[in-house]
Amino acid sequence: MTTLELHGVHKSYGNVAALKGIQLSVPRGSRTAIVGPSGSGKTSLLRIIAGFEAPDAGRVVLQGDVLADGPAIVPAHQRGIGYVPQDGALFPHLSVADNVGFGLDKSAPDRKARINELMDMVSLDRAMLQRRPHELSGGQQQRVALARALAQRPKLMLLDEPFSALDTGLRASTRKAVARLLQDAGITTILVTHDQAEALSFADQVAVMRGGLLAQVGMPLDLYLRPNDPVTASFLGDAVVLDATLSAGWADCALGRLPTQDHARVGSGQILLRPEQLSVSPLDTAAVSAGEAPSCVGTVVETDFCGSVCELIVQLDTSANGARVHVHSAGLEAPGVGARVQVSARGMAHVFPAS
Fold first, then answer.
1. pLDDT tops 80 at residue 165
2. Mean pLDDT in residue range 167-182
3. What is the spatial distance between Cα 212 and Cα 12, in angstroms, rounded to a whole number?
4. Is the dihedral of CA 166, 150, 148, 73 positive or negative?
5. Which of 119, 195, 210, 295 could disulfide-link 215, Cβ–Cβ 3.0 to 4.6 Å?
6. CA 311/CA 276 separation, integer angstroms
7. Per residue in 299-312, pLDDT tens?
8. CA distance 28 to 41
9. What fold does the segment set 2-228 form as a domain?
10. CA–CA separation, 83 vs 125, rounded Å?
11. Are 126 and 97 in contact (CB under 8 A)?
């Protein structure tokens, strides 16, 4: 079953078309990430779902209820949708308890119990209830904002880049904790982010936006390994895109002859490999002297040490057009600039659909 359905949603600001007929289905209890570069339309889409703006055309349906049909919309406060903005937007003059319970009836006899329950849900110590937001860490503030959004038992939770202001370690741990909390509560969630790794890690469905359109929607692993085009491939991570000659499930390219998942295509095309599919090893000079050079040789022209991983750029000897490939190597074993290496690939190459 689906919780949210978007049908042909359009939105323009003056002469600029922000959304161009968005079609999207969000399964009940799922976590969907909408990811795209700045200006792709993802924030406009989130605001239309929340009810902060009206579409020019199209329908928004939540659990069978029509929330928007063109400019005719249900107000945001009547939608049953929780919303956590980028900065949390806590009220600085209120205590944590009053922030969490802001939307609850102050005269309700179970208000205090509900606030305590929400603190437990987001794994915050009840001793924090009398603190003010400035007395909390960034991760704790985001959990308070989430608890406030959960107070009304929403049908749908919207997260607008809620982890972007946190440092790297805290960002990862908070993201995992929030994902687990929402999954355990069975709450359908939409996360908007510009962080590709965050989208792939958080969601079980990823929607990639580009130029006001959904370029591709699917499971994270499918999108990462089998993107529709090179632009989407590069947006979701480092990509090795090569021209190839295709025939019966094989691709002949600058890296040699590689297996592919496409047994039907014949002729020229483009293939994708991820850097983690490539490996380098020192060139066997003895084999070269004996006339037994490996099939793919190159020179390391750039290195970027990132700790456990070193990112290499290798200029291939076998490439007539000077192709360079991106390789992830173990950080402590990575060759330096100028090193002569042999390059090998493992796994299947992805063949991009014919344009």
1. no
2. 80
3. 10
4. positive
5. 210
6. 10
7. 999 999 988 889 99
8. 23
9. Rossmann fold (3.40.50)
10. 23
11. no
Q: At what angle do helices 138-150 and 168-185 cross, to 10 degrees?
A: 20
In this structure, are residues 25 and 5 in contact, taking their beta carbons and an 8 Å threshold? yes
CA-to-CA distance for 95 and 101, rounded, in angstroms?
10
Q: Is 173's pLDDT higher than 90?
A: no
Domain boundaries, the chain: 2-228, 238-351
Q: Kindly report the three-state secondary structure assignment for every residue of the chain.
A: CEEEEEEEEEEEECCEEEEEEEEEEEECCCEEEEECCCCCCHHHHHHHHHCCCCCCEEEEEECCEEEEECCEECCHHHCCEEEECCCCCCCCCCCHHHHHCCCCCCCCCCHHHHHHHHHHHCCCCHHHHHCCHHHCCHHHHHHHHHHHHHCCCCCEEEEECCCCCCCHHHHHHHHHHHHHHHHHHCCEEEEEECCHHHHHHHCCEEEEEECCEEEEEECHHHHHHCCCCHHHHHHCCCCEEEEEEEECCEEEECCEEEEECCCCCCEEEEEEECHHHEEEEECCHHHHHCCCCCCCEEEEEEEEECCCEEEEEEEECCCCCCCEEEEEEEHHHCCCCCCEEEEEECCCEEECCCC
Contact 186, 30 (CB under 8 A): no
Across the range 152-180, mean pLDDT stands at: 82
**Domain with residues 238-351, CATH architecture:** Beta Barrel (2.40)
Measured distance CA(317)–CA(297) in Å, rounded? 6
Tokens of 73: 């919309």
